[in-house]
Design brief:
Layout (H helix, E strand, L loop, with lengths): L3 E11 L12 E10 L3 H6 L8 H13 L6 H15 L4 E8 L11 E8 L1
Antiparallel strand pairs: 1-2, 2-3, 3-4
């Protein structure tokens, strides 16, 4: 199936990381979520009841980001994917978590992990 709903650049200030200062001082994270689910019915009906509410999905992501601290981006992404799979009828979910200013000794872009999980 190729039908999907994508949310990109959901932006959060949160305290996740393995280093002590990352667990105390909020930093910027961005999350992308892709949800594979049949969309033909919604395409024909034009009714919210026939699709997923991306606002509800974003609320789940926000809850995980505001929840218990994760040491690793991998764990954070896995928790988001697990929460989505447990609440929504999707065949697969993809999650990318980006730490916008990773603690590196040189200038860099974000550090990110990307995972896919099947329902």
């Amino acid at each position: 199936m190729n039908d999907c709903i994508r949310l990109t650049d959901l932006t959060f200030q949160a305290c996740h990381g393995a280093l002590p200062h990352e667990r105390r001082i909020a930093q910027e994270f961005r999350v992308d979520v892709t949800l594979w689910t049949p969309l033909e019915r919604a395409g024909k009906s034009d009714c919210l009841e026939d699709t997923l509410s991306y606002a509800d999905v974003a609320d789940v992501v926000a809850s995980v980001m505001a929840g218990p601290v994760h040491n690793l981006l991998e764990s954070l992404a896995n928790d988001i994917a697990s929460q989505i799979l447990s609440r929504f009828s999707v065949t697969k979910v993809g999650v990318t978590v980006k730490k916008m200013a990773p603690p590196l000794k040189m200038p860099s872009g974000p550090a990110q992990v990307e995972i896919e999980r099947h329902g």
